[in-house]
Every structure is written in C-alpha cells, then in structure tokens.
User: What shape does this take?
Amino acid sequence: MAITLSETAARHVSQFISKRGKGLGIRLGVKTSGCSGMAYKLEFVDVANDEDIAFESHGVKVFTDAKSLAYIDGTELDYTKEGLNEGFKFNNPNVKNECGCGESFNV
Amino acid sequence: MALLQIAEPGLSAAPHEHRLAVGIDLGTTNSLVATVRSGSAAVLADEFGRSLLPSVVRYLQNGETVVGHEAQSEQTRDAQNTISSVKRFMGRSVKDIKDAPALPYRFVDAPGMLQLQTRAGVKSPVEVSADILRALKTRAESALGGELTGAVITVPAYFDDAQRQATKDAARLAGLNVLRLLNEPTAAAIAYGLDNGAEGTYVVYDLGGGTFDISILKLTRGVFEVMATSGDSALGGDDFDHRVYCWILEQAGLHGLSAQDGRLLLTRAREAKEALTEHLDTRVTALLSDGQAIDLTLDQATFRQITKTLVDKTLLPVRKALRDAGIQAEDVKGVVMVGGATRMPHVQKAVGDFFGQPPLTNLDPDKVVALGAAIQANVLVGNKTDDEWLLLDVIPLSLGIETMGGLAEKIIPRNSTIPVARAQEFTTFKDGQTAMSIHVVQGERELISDCRSLAHFVLRGIPPMVAGAARIRITFQVDADGLLAVSAREMTSGVEASIEVKPSYGLGDEDISRMLTESLSHVQDDIEARKLREAVVDAESLRDATVSALASDGDLLAEDERQLVDTALAAIAEAIAADDTRQVNQATHHLNKVTEDFAARRMDRNIQRALKGQNIAEL
Assistant: This one.
C-alpha cells in the first residue's frame, strides 16, 4: 500500500510549500462527484487528521485517508508540462475509465 | 488528462469548476499576465518562454491583427498602422496629448476620447487595448487549460475615472470578466506581501522604459491608501540607453549616422547597460555599414557618471511626493522597486541612500505588478480561505449631492473603503413638485460652487404632493474600481432614475490635494456660509407654506391679523436680501409666532372638512 511522488513532482511540491511559507505536506484523495463518478482532491495540509494515513516520498509527506486509499493505492503523482500548461497528474493504476478531461474517473 | 494544481486545504474545486483567475499588468511599453498556481504567483510566458508582451498592436492589410513582438518589429516600417504606448491615449482627447503632432499616428478627435485612423478603420484606444488584453487572455487560457473566471487589471494610481472606465471597457471588449482594477503601486506592495505586514507608510519607486512614477502608500488595517503620487512621464530606462549611445558616438568620433547604424548602436547601448548590472565593465563592439569597426569598453564608474543626472532627476518627484504626503524620508517603512530600469545598481544605491534603507528588490521588477494582481485575483475568485483578508482601496474625496441653497450634502465621506453603498432620503421643497434635479458632486467643501460637479440627472414623475411629503431615496454606489453609480427612487410611487458617473475628464492628484487643503483652510468660512444657507432655506420654506395657506384659508384671518402676517413676510424677504444669518433666523422665528394661531385654525377646519359626510362607523 503506497502513494508515491515522481522526483519532479516532489521538487515542485517542496518549492510550492516553501513559497507558501507553511504546510506539512500534501493531501491526495478522492471525492464523489464529476462526470465519471469520482474526482481527485489535491490540497496543501496544514493540520493532519487523526485518521490520516501518511507516506513519505522524496522527502515530501503525502497524506490520505483509508477510504481514498482504496481507490488510489499505487498512484504515482507526477508533474508535467503540456504546451503552456503545467501541473500535477495522477498516474492511478486502479482507473478503469475516466472522462475526457481526466478530472473524474471510476474504478 | 487535465493537470491539477494544489489547492488550499478544503478548497479543492469540483471537476470542470476550477476558478481560474489572472492578474494583468497592462503597461505602456509591455504587458504581462500572471496567475497563482499551487499557491505561488507566477508570470505566464508565451510558447517561446517570453514573459513580456510588447504593448504594440499592428493592423495588417488582410484584416488580421498582430500583437506583441511581431508587431513591434514592424513598428518603424508601418508606423501609422502600428500602435504603441496606447495607454497614454486612454480616456484622453487630442488636446490632452501634448506631443501629438510629433507622433506618427493619424488622430481623429472624438467627444470624450481621441481615436486613431488605421487601415483597419478608426480605432479607439479602448479597442487597441482590448487587442492587447485578448492576446494575454488567449495566452492565459492555453496555459491554464480552461476559460478564465476573472481578471484583476492594474492601472496607474493617478488614473482618473475616465481612464479607469476606458480600461474596464477594453477588458469587457476582450471578453474578460474584470474582478476589479487595482492601483499598480498597490499591486507591487501586495506582491511583496506588505499587506500582511506592519502598518505604515511605503514608497513604490517605478522606473519603467519611458515613464517614472513614485507613489506613497499608507497601510492601515489592511487598507492601502494612496497618499501622494508624482513622477515624470518622459523619464525611463530608454534615457539611460540614449546616454550610452551618445557616449559611444563621442568616443568613436561618429556623426551623421544612417538610421540603420543608429538603431544598431542604440541596441548595443542597451545591451551594454544591461551587462553592467552584473559586470564591472563591458565591451561594446559593432560593425557599421561603411565598414568601420567600433570596439570600446564601458566600465561601471563611467556609466554611473554619464547617467548620474538621470538618477538625480528621479529624486525630484520623490521629494515632491514626500512633501505632498507631509512625511519625511525617515518615516518610510519600506521601498518597493518596480520597472526594469531599477535593476541598475546605482539606481538602487541612490534610492537606498535617499531613504536610509535598502529597497526591496528580490522580486523581478518587471513582473512584480502582475504578480500582485494575480494574488489579488486569486483571493477575489475564492481560491483562498476566508481568514485571508481582502485588500481594499479608499475613495479620495467625499461624494454627495446638491441640496437647496447650493449646499453639498455628503453621502459617502472621503476615505470610505470601496466597494461601498450608502443611501439617504430627501424630500420635495415645493408643493406639487413633480421632478427633482439631482446634482452629483465631489469634494470636501460645504458649498456646491467649491466642489467639483460630476453629473446631473432628473427624477421625473413624482406624484404631486405637499412639500416634504415625498420620500426620495438617493443611493450612491462605488464599485471596487472606484466608479460611481447614483440612483434616485421616490418611495411611495416607485419612480426611479439613475446615472453612472463617467466624467469626461478626471481629477489629478494635484487637484485632489488642492481641494483637500482648501477645505481645511476654509472650514470657518464654510461653516458660516452653511449656517446662512440653511437659515435662508428654512425661511423660504416657511414663507412659501404661509403664502399658500393664505391663498387657500386667508378668510380665517381678521384684517389686523392678516396685517401682522404680511409684515412678517416682508421682514423675511428683507432679511434674506441682507445675507444676515441672525436677521433671517429672527424673521423666521417671528413669522412662525404670528402664524401659530392661524395654523391651529386651519388644522381645525381641515379636520372638519375631512369628517364631513362620513359615517361615524367608518372612523
């Protein structure tokens, strides 16, 4: 059971947290919504919850909850550029299909 | 798949509902667009990695419009159809542009704002600016992967209502939702996070390519107030290039250069200036069209010496702004550097020496305004939690309306934070009055004649009523950009009229400070004048009421009683003519007294009339 960050993603997360001036790490999760049933959540973490499950990847703390982990176990978070756009990408092995934009998915 | 950004805790957007917001620095020479991604503000570059978009628009033969570098490179070849520095024309008429005859454009004078004749037809500065904004919008949407929710656009602190409105119109034309306009120095201060820091006075020193602006900001409880601005609209980095260019000509003994060689040497001069930011000396080499080779070395000491007068020249407006704000250099808590020319070490040193502290320079001075605007935009679209306070601006002068007797009634006092809405109820002055003229004014003085007139409009269709019975609610609304809308509504009938105030010309900061100083030095006169006007208004209103009562119920008075009232009326007319507050008050008081009994009798009669013929059961 694990969630990992690619090296590029870890570097960007560290930069964003240091520029932001605070934050323990990032939270990955899923919530039910969107055109394909479930959507990813990607947020800064200032306070960890008791029920949180934490991983560490390339020096960055990654938080999630048990319910989310069931859907995103084995995910590698990557940071990529597409044309002028850049941002994080979930490489989630559990996904069966996702909507055209990839913002929501189901398993 | 869509690329995600890290959201603030609990603020992850639902799919397809990302609130994409940008900050735009719509500059005279260059424009930029920035956004906040994963909590950090960053400027968005084009596909070649260039952040700056030259604010140049060219209209081509085939109907196409090109913006930026591509337009800039053709500027000298197609001057009439290639518009640069259009910001200077926003909200301006031809007579406002002093160097208009020297510019290569075909100006068309139009009411309110000048226009430019191009091969694509007549273009207003608003349309040209919209073309620049459209290019930035396209860049931002491809960089953010979606449609923009809104934008914050920066404007110089000294921009008046007409220029701000023109900027807003340009954004609307470009299909941008303007979250608000933000003063450039305020944006720079936000980029440095000063809004979260200690209260106090800050200076923003903005030396751009061709203009110099100095602003003094006061931060109190999260509100930035512009205390003073000054500057030089013909002083900037280009003048430093020109000094180096002249030095090259002198050293190489050149004169009568071709335009092509001139341009080449000017480019070399700029490169030398930029190199000296990092190095102690630099080589200047060029091969002229006649085969002559130039090979010189310029060191920092020489560069400092040949440009010293330019640096000193920036300090004059700095002193003036400090004087206007009524503060000393040592009262300043921090100095923010904006504009590419502030990279020059000796400019930074001169500013540091003047204020006795090193200026803030760790952000890119070309980007700092756009970054601040992006941070503000991100807050305004709701990507931040509520405890992050919203930065506000204030209105510089009170807004109000004219009331009877030429008095100014303030509805929104000066230094109110915007956006703000205030309402006040007014009434009619004459019996049967069916219309009311509303005169919107700006200023601190008590008398209308000393304030600045902003707009006039008329509320018609008030049902005829006795004086004082109508209830007219006047609402003043100033939006986040400092633009005013006034509406009037008669509450019993619901008739309404409103106006959006777009003055044809605006107030400069000098006018504002003059109006403020005058209001302070005239306080006593104003109070006296106000007392007199109020007394006169009261007297006239009582006189009119008496005259109309005499007309309808004059028969209730005996001959000698009538005589007394007539004498009192005459005394009022005399007192008003004499402009004497005491005399007017006495005459009013007297008329009140002699008509007391008359008023009581009239009331009895009216009650009898009202009751006559009514069934007791209906009462």
